[in-house]
Amino acid sequence: MGDKLDRELKKEIQRWIEWLKSQRNYSPHTIQSYVSDLEIFIKYQDKEKVSLNDLQKIDIRGFRKFFSSRAQKGLSHTSIAREESSVRNFFKWLDNNDIIKNTAIFQISTPKLPKVLPRSLDVNTMFDVIDQATQDCSEPWIGIRDKAILTLLYGCGLRISEALSLNVEDINHTEFVKIKGKGNKDRYVPILPIVIERIEAYKKICPYKLREGEALFLGAKGERVSPRIIQRKLQQIRVKLNLADNITPHALRHSFATHLLAQGADLRSIQELLGHASLSSTQRYTDVNLEKIKKEYKKAFPDK
Residue 301: its pLDDT value, please? Predict the structure, then answer.
C-alpha cells in the first residue's frame, strides 16, 4: 500500500494504527485485519498517489461503488460488513482528530447479516469430545495436556486465546482464576475441582520445567501451545465422532454458556463469566434454547 500513499496519509495511517493498539487495545490480528481492509479500499482509488484530500472528496456514490465491486467479486455479506467497519473506523478517527471530515461513509447502511446462533454440544457429547483428547497422540503427556485444555475451555467458558495465554502461577488452587480477556479487561471465573485435577495431572507428566511467569501449557518443543494445535486436535476428534465441521474450540465455550442457561443461570451472571461487554451478545443463548425447544416440540408433535 505504501506506493499508493502520499507522505501525509502514510503518517496518519500509522498514527491510527498506534491508536488502535494503545487506546482501543485491539489485538495484533484485529489491527492487521483493519489495515488490510483499508489497503484494499485505498488501492481501489483511481489515483497514482492517494492523499488525505482525495479521501475527503469521496462522495457516497464512491463508497457505494467500492462496496458494490466487492460484492461482485463474490465476497460474503459478513466480509463486506467487516471491510466497511474498518474503513468507517479510519474515517471516524480522521474526523475525531480534525484531520479531514467526510461523513459520506456514515450514510451507507451496513449489510444486513444473517443471524448466527452459537454452536453447542449436548452434555454427553461434550464429555465424549474431552475423553477423546488422549487418543492418537504422539506422546502420552500431550494427550493429558489436551484433555486439560478442553476441560478448561468447557469448564470455565474460556476463549482459546485466554486459556493458552495462562501462565503457571495463574492456576494456584484458589476457587477463581483471573482471566485477561478482550480489550485487556480482567474478569474472575470460578474454576471447578475437575479442571484443577486435570491441569495438575498434566503438570505432573509434562517433561518440561514449568516456571512461574511462563506458559502453563507447553508444546512438543517446550514452547507455548498455539491455538492451531488445539484446533487440529478438535478436527481429529470431529472426524472420529462424526461431528459437524463447526465444532471448534469456541463451541466448547458456547456449550458452557448454553448448559448454564439450561440449568437456570441468569443472563447477567453468564455475561460476567464469558466477559461479554454487552448483554446483547449473551442474549443469543436464549435463542439457542428456543431453537432446541422447537426441535423437541416438532419431534413430539410432528403434525403440528
Answer: 45
